[in-house]
Amino acid sequence: MKIEATPKHAKVRVPSSLRALVRSECCNHLDGQHLGELPCAVLAGRRCGWFERALLPVASQQVQEAYSQMVSNGGQVHRRIASRHCQCGAALEPRQRYCETCRKERRRRSARKAQRKRRVPVSS
Predict the structure, then answer these.
(1) Digit-coded pLDDT (tens) for 101-110
(2) Residue 84: predicted pLDDT
(3) Taking the model in full, what pTM does it have?
(4) SS3 label, residue 91
(5) 85 Cα distance to chain centroid
């Protein structure tokens, strides 16, 4: 089983019950510190074969559910997708600022404003 190191800036939300079990019972932890060169796979949000074979069967149901949820979500326990809405109330896609209708209206308004600036005032 190949374990890759996670970047230091990667934040993984591991439930406290799961974290406590790993730090107290895992053979790779001594006084709360991981002994290996690579970070702990479970605390980094990845699967650990040893943890699944040795500790998970004797763990409480709550810890088992937290571990399976964390592993199935790719290391994120609580994944919230915030729905964003345009000023008119329409739902927006990711990386989208305005809905299609508001985008067209805003573009027209911006073009009119730019054209007004370019026009030369007519004097009589």
Answers:
(1) 999 999 999 9
(2) 86
(3) 0.47
(4) strand
(5) 20
- Quickly state the pLDDT bin for 55 (edges 50, 70, 90): confident
Q: Where are the alpha helices (DSSP H) in the chain?
A: 16-25, 49-50, 61-72, 100-118
Strand partners for 29? 34
Give the residue among 58, 51, 62, 52 at the shortest CA–CA distance from 27.
51
Alpha carbon 34 to its chain centroid, in Å, reads 24
> CB neighbours (10 Å) of residue 26?
19
φ and ψ of 44, to 5 deg: -90, 0
Please name which of 40, 18, 17 lies closest in space to residue 29, comparing C-alpha atoms: 40
**Domain spans in the chain, listed from the N-terminal domain onward:** 16-72, 81-124
In angstroms, the CA 79 to CA 11 distance is 13
Residue 27 DSSP one-character state: T
List Cα–Cα distances, 79 to 13, 70, 84, in angstroms.
10, 10, 16
Q: How far apart are CA 28 and CA 60, in angstroms?
A: 20
